[in-house]
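My current task is to audit a protein record that another person submitted. I have pasted the whole thing underneath without changing anything:
***
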Amino acid sequence: MPVAPKSLARIAEPSGFGMADVAFLAGLDESTVSRLWDDPEWLDRIKGRSLQSLVSVLPGVGEYVLGFSLADRRTRLADQLDGRSVQVDQEAFRRLVQERRIPEQYLSNALDTAACVLDGDVRKAASHLARFWGRRQDYALGFVFGTNDADSLLVDPAPLVAAAIDMVDRLAARENSFHAMVAQANLLHHITRATGEIVSTVSERDITRSTALAFRSSIIGEIMATDDLDVAERYGRVVQSSHLAALVEGWAFPTYTHDAKPTPDFSLPRSVLLRHTAEEVLREIDTYNEAYLFYLAETSIPMILRTDPTFGLQRDDLRRRLRTRAESSGQARTAAACAAILRELDDTPGTLGDPVDSAW
């Protein structure tokens, strides 16, 4: 995967173009191209418009710029993490990019974020982690924490998990920062998934505006890690009894899937089609454990249907997926929760309605 620096002269060889040819076709002064022609570090010296002109006329320049930029960042991040005694699994990186088609930019962003956490830089880590509130970004972050599957970007993610645990309370201290709030929630989610244990001190009895998202993220991580129906059932009761917990639960999926923009007051538009939310929930119905399925059926899907009764225009798919999982479920409580949603889908029309109340 490494890409060595290459001069313009070498890139131009297969085309047969000389320096004057490239300058003429690109509409650049020969003196400009001459200064770059034999320099392997030419990419650091060229300006935007000139680079666009070269990309448009010389085959191989665009591919080189992309490949070298990605490889250079990947190498710098691997060296940076190695300096903290954390090794990047280069073979896992290759598999994720080439075989699983995960954008390398997402994976490098996750490595960059891991470096910030390992450095203990709270401000920088918060700014990075806040950008991982999203389905694809969060999936990439899971690879540095080793919470997705067998492919982990770090040979040993334990030092990162330990550093993340140390950072959680420091992020909580920045309670007026929305970035810090989202960052803490992201860390708690992956810490809980990695360890199966809740490390947050947030209690269900004292949820506040600054702790509600962290509480939810910890519980969802615990449900994923432990497959404990009691945890999922207890969380459902909290959502029913706490306005703040309900508000955040109703906000989470639409913003996580980019059906709506994340807002510091956890509000949603008065009318929104939850197309991407529906696609994500359908995927999760098919793939996640029994306790998580119970959480979806008992707590999440009813709130989604209140926000968008059309379920992203996919109510029929929701019926079919829930019925299939309910029939194969080995848990009576999960099957019953799915059956209740199926009855609701049969009894209510699929028209777009008002969202959950967004006032604090």
